[in-house]
Design brief:
The chain is of the alpha+beta class. The chain has six helices and 17 strands. The chain folds into three domains: about 100 residues, no CATH class; about 90 residues, no CATH class; about 100 residues, no CATH class. Helix content is about 20%, strand content about 30%. It has a five-stranded mixed β-sheet, with no helix packed on it. The chain has a four-stranded antiparallel β-sheet with strand order 2-16-4-5, with no helix packed on it. A three-stranded antiparallel β-sheet has the order 9-13-14, with no helix packed on it. The longest helix has 22 residues. The relative contact order is 0.21.
Amino acid sequence: MLTFGQIQNSSVASVAGVNVNDPQFTQYVNDAVRMLIELGNGDARGWWGTVQLIRGVAYDGCMVWPANVAAVLGIKHCKHAFKLANYWHEFTKEEWMAEHWNCDWSSRRRLVEFDGQTCLFYPISGSPTQIAVMAQSPADANVASITIYGKDSNGNEVFDPTLGTRGITLTPGSATNFYTGVAMSEVVAIGKNATNGPLQLYAFNPITGIGNLLASYEGGDVNPKFLYSRVGCVNCPLNLKALVKLGFRAVYQPNDLCPLDNVDAIKSMVQAIRARESSNDALSMAMEKDALRRLVAQVNSHFPKEQFVCAFKPFGNEPPVNHLSMI
C-alpha cells in the first residue's frame, strides 16, 4: 500500500496547487481517495489492494475489526467456514447449502457481519480495570493527551479528578497521569488529539503493572470507533481468518497507509476536484473518468483469468452461414 508520505513526494504535488504540508493538500488527497472508493468499489473484487486477508482473535464471542474494514466477504476458523448474517437475513451460497444440507442449522456457528461499534479491541466489562496509556513515538511523550469516557466499577460515570470534567484525561510519559486511577467497567468513547505515532491503551494494576492490550489508535484517530461482529456459539478466544474489503480511512501522518495503491488515479481525481471547484465541469468529469479508467486497468492487469480469449464454433471449423438461403 501507499503511504501518505509517498503521495506527498509524488507527482500529485504538481497538480494540487498547494504545498504538500498545507492542510488543503491533505484534504485533497483524502477527498480524492474517498470519492474513488465510493465510485467504483462496489463489487466483491474491489479495487486492487482493497480486498485483504486478515487474522484476528474473537474474545467472548466478539470480533473487533480494524478501522478501515468496510465489509466482511468471508470468515473461517481452521478449515471451517462461518455463515455470514446481519440483522435481517443470512448470506448463504447454494453450494454451501448442498454440502451441509443435513446439518442442524442452529448448531452451526454464524457471524453477524456488523453488530455495533466499540472503542476497544479487548472487552473489559467482565472484569473492571484501571487503564494506562503509552506512546509509541517519543515525540508524543508528555505532549499527547487522550480522554477516556466511561463508567467505574459501580456503574457510575467517571469524571476527571483534577479538572472535574466528564471523562479522565491521560498523558503518555507522565509520571503519575498515565493511568486512570479508577477501575473502569465500560469505555463508551475516546477522544484524543492528533499524534505523531500510535497510542496504546493497556489494562493496568499499580501493583502488578501493565496487563492486556486493550486498544491501539493511529496518529490521525481523534475519535476512534471500531465495528465489531458477534460470533455465535463461542465462549473462548477464537483465532479467525477473514477476507475483508477495505473502505476509506483518512490519512494525516506521513506513515499513514492509503487504501488505494495508485498514484496516477489519485492525481487525476485531485485534478477533477480542483476543476469542479473552478466550475469547469467538463474537465472535472474527464479527469474523474480518467481516474476510474486507471483503477480498472490496474485491476485487469492483476486478474488475467478474466481476460482469456474464447472461440465459439458451433459448426466446427466451418464459418457460420445462412443455411436457409441454401434450401
